[in-house]
Amino acid sequence: MNNKLTGVAAVFCIVVAGLVPAAAQETQPTIPVPAPAHAAGKYELRSNEFNDYASSYRLSNGQVAEFTEQNNRYYVVVRNHGAGQTTLALQSTRRTPVQLEPVAPGKFVTRSGVELSFANDGDMVTIGNFERLPAARVAKADVGKPMLAWR
Predict the structure, then answer these.
(1) CA distance 143 to 141
(2) Domain residues of the chain, as ranges?
(3) What single string gives the DSSP state of each residue in 28-58?
(4) pTM, whole model, 2 decimals?
């Protein structure tokens, strides 16, 4: 019985010894340190910088991605209509816009993980994780592959 008590006492001492440093850490004050803006992925577009991208782009799968700006916020909408249809038909079937967050010149992301990268003075856009956009049509074999689009 004496051996059992000695063993329990030893385990108890080890547990208590492990808790003492943790308790000491809890009593020390903590000071929050904000991350720099660039580390959080934020980028401030210059005035009129988005004008290079605000346009409709024909995707390689036949869909259209339309990029717009409203009140210094940037959006993309994917639609299934061809270029030859009337404006009224396009407006009546538009999807909910998805907000874009600028992360670098010509580079944007969405909250759902879509990555957009413009090139050739805004004439081309590469869209990673395109399938995460509303109304996006992607063949099973193309899921996860970048989608290309041109003006």
Answers:
(1) 6
(2) 39-150
(3) S-----PPPGGGGT--PPPTTGGGGT-SEEE
(4) 0.66
Q: Residue 97 contacts by C-beta under 8 Å, 6 or more apart in sequence?
A: 68, 75, 76, 77
CA distances 51 to 66, 91, 135, Å, are 13, 21, 24
Whose structure tokens read 């009224």? 88
Burial 107-118 (b: 16+ CB within 10 A, else e): bbbbeeebbbbb
Parts of the chain with a pLDDT under 50: 5, 8, 15, 22-25, 33-40, 83-92
Classified as helix, coil or strand, 89 is helix
Q: Which two tokens stand for residue 19?
A: 């808790």
